[in-house]
Amino acid sequence: MLKRIADSVFSFDIEWIPDPKSAEILFDSPPADGPGQQAAESFEALWASARKEGDLPDSQPYLKTILCRIVSLAGILREKVPGGEPSLKLISLPADPMDPEKIDEKSMISSFLKSVGRRKPQLVGYNSAQADVPILVQRAIVLGLPGFGFSDRPNKPWEGVDYFDARNSDYNLDLADAMGQYRDRPTLHQAATLSGIPGKIEVSGDSVAQMWLEGKLPEVVEYNEFDAFTTHLLWARIAHFSGLLTSEEYENEQSLVSKLLHSEIANGHTHLERFLNEWNRLRGLTGQS
Q1: 289 band by pLDDT with thresholds 50, 70 and 90
Q2: CA atoms of 84 and 223, how far apart (whole Å)
Q3: Is the four-CA dihedral 102, 106, 107, 108 of positive or negative sign?
Q4: Tens digit of pLDDT for each residue in 115-135?
Q5: Are strands 122-125 and 172-174 parallel, antiparallel or unpaired?
Q6: pTM of the full predicted structure?
Q7: 135-173 in b/e burial notation, b at 16+ Cβ within 10 A?
Q8: Where are the alpha helices (DSSP H) in 15-150?
Q9: Domains by residue range for the chain, with CATH
Q10: pLDDT tens digit string along 159-171?
Q11: Which of 231, 234, 280, 287 is the most exposed place for a label (fewest CB within 10 A)?
């Protein structure tokens, strides 16, 4: 279970797609910088290389993360000054999914690494130690980026922040590991919805590649933000179980999430109404309203 809550916590989730440039380099696929038929052919080249005997010809097997491109990153930043109340903020990249400069993968990863390297928050994810953190590192290396402080490591686990040692460091928290091991590990959707927290709403991770091909990056970003809220609410629930949040503090954390949702909706992010409505429905269904 969790051992401590840092003054800065970032509950995050990342969405990625097969990388057309990887297909171009490895399999001589035609260049494809954006959605369209050529990108679809690049995706198929990468999937075909990963299929095993007996797989369906149109299956989309899991690709090694280094072969994928990050297209969205969202998280809930929780900050607390000593003796003060925590505050929450939604951070979402790209900030404008219609801006060609903002959707650039190198730009998004740079922004993330710089911010995390400076603030040094606890990173909280679901299966993040096995997927989200590795793809950030691998893609940053492929793109020739420096670590911007994210890559700093202490000599010993207890001497500082370490994002590369999920087993011993308090700063790379994988909620999937907290929920179970190997065959007993639930999905994020299962763990969340059974706890009265919205899980996957209308979209799943398997849909992201096709959505991107259809030019629906704004919808991918919206889905990514749903998962960020889900991850943070599940983190709060596990922190409550771990004794790091009292029952009163846990209720307050949920109130802070509700206030953030209402604030974002009032500022035009109306897609979050679906999350709020589903949260209310599930809390009633599970008897936690």
Answers
A1: low
A2: 32
A3: positive
A4: 999 999 999 999 999 999 999
A5: parallel
A6: 0.95
A7: bbbebbebeebebbebeeeeeeeeeebbbeebeebbbbb
A8: 20-27, 37-50, 105-119, 133-142
A9: 8-285 (3.30.420.10)
A10: 889 999 888 889 9
A11: 287
